[in-house]
């Protein structure tokens, strides 16, 4: 029995890119997206093996399981078809077409792709690799993937996550950019862009709810028992329990496994960072004001302001961050911190730009000496290392949460106004070159006396 309908009229939209592996264009465009007249077909009749499926044929003929759905749609058949002896299908051998793909812009750690239709096979992702409809992305504990769509939209797949590329119909000359992702586990951070003159529909579905947007920034998180959608920019329409709820900027919604949705909840405000240091080495810590309703914090280091090139990320309960594991990989990097509430909704971010420097623990800083004259304290560099320029830090607390930082030349010092009856703390480190510092000196404690009349 032949499964080919010789009377089907195939429509075809010509394009500019030729490719024998072809077709593969098919992976992401539906049969009506391209046009083919019967006399313009460049295809062959293929006889499947007994018990073949479109997945096994796509893997054997094209080397990519992700093309199985496109091949099924090309033949206008179910992707679940199991072939028997005597069946026939059409396989394109050369197509003019365009690729609907998404590009892996950046990745880190354990990151894998599971091609469409595969339950056992997965392989490591590669930077700048193109992914197709129905491909699945999985990340491990330290894994991170940043995806860039043809519209310019960016989706960052967080650690321990699983997402399926369910629909990709977003070519530059399409009237609508239509993308659907299926978040199965973990977290997605999305920044949806819109091409000029092109309408936009970007949807993320979860087992509990779906979020549809036309240009905004939002987070989606999925666990075994609930899902969360938080909006940091624009407006998101959330569909849960067959009810559509508009969620505005600065708010979120939580949905349980039985699809019971919470009220719209205000996201936690961004944490207030105490002081932004001039430079940071592995000795430094950054502190922020604790948020009363925060159960934990998410701290991220990245090489870019929007967090596509992630260096390090961690969940923690403390409201301080240590740079002890920080690699010096760029001239600048960006730190963001946000609180997470009792609903597991991520709050608004506080982001700062920082300048990383290496620590040379074979060098020493100068000693510090001080003298008080009235309400002014003078602190000077002393000892063999005093000829080097130094960074001097002045604080009113021993942990240096709030700090005044001054760079001084060799043999230099600082003058600082003080109040009576107070204690102050000073430390310094040598600036060995623009990207290298010494360890901090011993902390100099200064106590001013109370004045009596």
Structure write-up:
With 453 residues, the chain is mainly beta. It has 4 domains: 17-97, no CATH class; 102-266, Jelly Rolls; 285-356, Sandwich (Immunoglobulin-like); 367-447, Immunoglobulins (Immunoglobulin-like, Sandwich), CATH 2.60.40. 4% of the residues lie in helices and 43% in strands. It is built from 2 helices and 36 strands. The strands form 7 sheets. The chain has a 17-stranded mixed beta sheet that branches. A hairpin with a 2-residue loop joins β34 and β35 (436-437). α1 (54-62) packs across α2.
List keywords for this structure.
453 residues, Jelly Rolls, 43% strand, six-stranded mixed beta sheet, Immunoglobulin-like, mainly beta, single chain, 4 domains, 36 strands, 17-stranded mixed beta sheet
The CATH topology of the largest domain corresponds to Jelly Rolls
Roughly how many Å apart are the termini?
Answer: 111 Å
Helix proportion: under 10%
Largest sheet: 17 strands, mixed
Counting DSSP E segments of at least 2 residues, the number of strands comes to 36
Supply the number of structural domains.
4
Please mark out the parts with pLDDT under 50 across 5 or more consecutive residues, or reply none.
1-41
- CATH A-level architecture of the largest domain: Sandwich
The CATH class name of the largest domain reads Mainly Beta
Oligomer kind: single chain
The average pLDDT score comes to 85
Task: Give the class from helix and strand content and strand pairing.
Answer: mainly beta
Rough outline: elongated
Helices, by number, come to 2
Beta fraction: 35-45%
């Amino acid at each position: 029995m032949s499964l080919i309908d010789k009377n089907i009229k195939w429509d075809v939209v010509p394009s500019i890119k030729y490719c024998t592996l072809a077709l593969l264009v098919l992976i992401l465009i539906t049969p009506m997206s391209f046009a083919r007249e019967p006399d313009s077909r460049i295809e062959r009749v293929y006889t499947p093996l007994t018990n073949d499926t479109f997945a096994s044929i796509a893997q054997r003929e094209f080397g990519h399981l992700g093309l199985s759905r496109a091949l099924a749609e090309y033949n206008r058949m179910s992707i679940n078809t199991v072939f028997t002896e005597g069946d026939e299908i059409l396989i394109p051998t050369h197509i003019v077409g365009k690729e609907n793909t998404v590009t892996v812009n950046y990745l880190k750690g354990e990151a894998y792709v599971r091609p469409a239709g595969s339950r056992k096979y997965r392989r490591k992702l590669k930077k700048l690799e193109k992914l197709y409809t129905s491909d699945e992305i999985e990340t491990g504990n330290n894994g991170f993937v940043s995806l860039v769509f043809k519209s310019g939209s960016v989706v960052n797949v967080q650690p321990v996550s699983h997402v399926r590329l369910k629909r990709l119909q977003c070519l530059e000359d399409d009237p609508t950019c239509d993308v659907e992702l299926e978040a199965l586990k973990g977290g997605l951070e999305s920044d949806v862009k819109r091409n000029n003159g092109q309408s936009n529909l970007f949807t993320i579905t979860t087992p509990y709810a779906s979020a549809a947007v036309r240009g905004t920034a939002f987070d989606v998180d999925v666990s075994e028992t609930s899902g969360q959608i938080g909006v940091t920019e624009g407006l998101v329409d959330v569909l849960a329990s067959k009810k559509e709820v508009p969620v505005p900027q600065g708010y979120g919604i939580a949905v349980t496994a039985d699809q019971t949705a919470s009220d719209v909840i205000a996201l936690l405000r961004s944490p207030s960072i105490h002081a932004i240091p001039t430079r940071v080495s592995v000795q430094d810590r950054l502190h922020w004001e604790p948020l009363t309703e925060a159960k934990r914090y998410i701290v991220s280091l990245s090489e870019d302001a929007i967090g596509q090139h992630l260096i390090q990320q961690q969940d923690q309960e403390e409201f301080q961050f240590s740079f002890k594991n920080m690699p010096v990989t760029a001239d600048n990097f960006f730190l963001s911190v946000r609180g997470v509430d009792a609903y597991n909704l991520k709050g608004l971010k506080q982001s700062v730009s920082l300048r990383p420097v290496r620590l040379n623990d074979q060098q020493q800083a100068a000693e510090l000496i001080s003298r008080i004259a009235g309400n002014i304290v003078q602190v000077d560099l002393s000892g063999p290392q005093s000829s080097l320029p130094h960074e001097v830090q002045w604080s009113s607390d021993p942990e240096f949460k709030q700090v005044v930082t001054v760079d001084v030349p060799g043999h230099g010092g600082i003058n600082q106004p003080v109040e009576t009856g107070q204690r102050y703390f000073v430390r310094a480190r040598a600036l060995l070159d623009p990207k290298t510092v010494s360890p901090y000196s011993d902390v100099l404690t200064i106590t001013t006396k109370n004045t009596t009349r």
